[in-house]
Amino acid sequence: MSRSTEPARPGLPPLDPRIAARIADRSADHIAELAVLCRLPSISAEGRALRETAEAVADLMRRWGIPGTIVETEDAPAVLARMTGRSPVVLLAYNHYDVQPPDPLEEWTSPPFEPTLRDGRLYARGVADDKGDLLARLAAIEAILHVRGELPIGVVLLVEGQEEIDGPAIQRWIRENPELLACDLAFVEAADLDAGGRPGLILGTRGMCYVELEAHGPPSDLHSSLAAAVENPAWTLVRALATIVDPESGAIRIPGFHDRVRPLTERDRALIAALPDPTASWQQELGIVPPADPAARRRLLEEIVGAPTATICGISGGYAGPGLKTVIPAVARAKIDFRLVPDQDPAEIVELLRAHLDAEGFPEVRIIVHTQDGLPARTPSDDPWVERVAALTEAWYGAPPAIWPNSPGGIVMEPFIRGLGVPTMFGGVRPAGGRYHAPDEFLVVDSFAPAARFFAWLLERLGDDPPVARRG
Amino acid sequence: MSRSTEPARPGLPPLDPRIAARIADRSADHIAELAVLCRLPSISAEGRALRETAEAVADLMRRWGIPGTIVETEDAPAVLARMTGRSPVVLLAYNHYDVQPPDPLEEWTSPPFEPTLRDGRLYARGVADDKGDLLARLAAIEAILHVRGELPIGVVLLVEGQEEIDGPAIQRWIRENPELLACDLAFVEAADLDAGGRPGLILGTRGMCYVELEAHGPPSDLHSSLAAAVENPAWTLVRALATIVDPESGAIRIPGFHDRVRPLTERDRALIAALPDPTASWQQELGIVPPADPAARRRLLEEIVGAPTATICGISGGYAGPGLKTVIPAVARAKIDFRLVPDQDPAEIVELLRAHLDAEGFPEVRIIVHTQDGLPARTPSDDPWVERVAALTEAWYGAPPAIWPNSPGGIVMEPFIRGLGVPTMFGGVRPAGGRYHAPDEFLVVDSFAPAARFFAWLLERLGDDPPVARRG
Question: Which of A5, A387, B39, B142 has the maximum number of C-beta atoms within 10 A of its C-beta?
Answer without folding.
Answer: B142
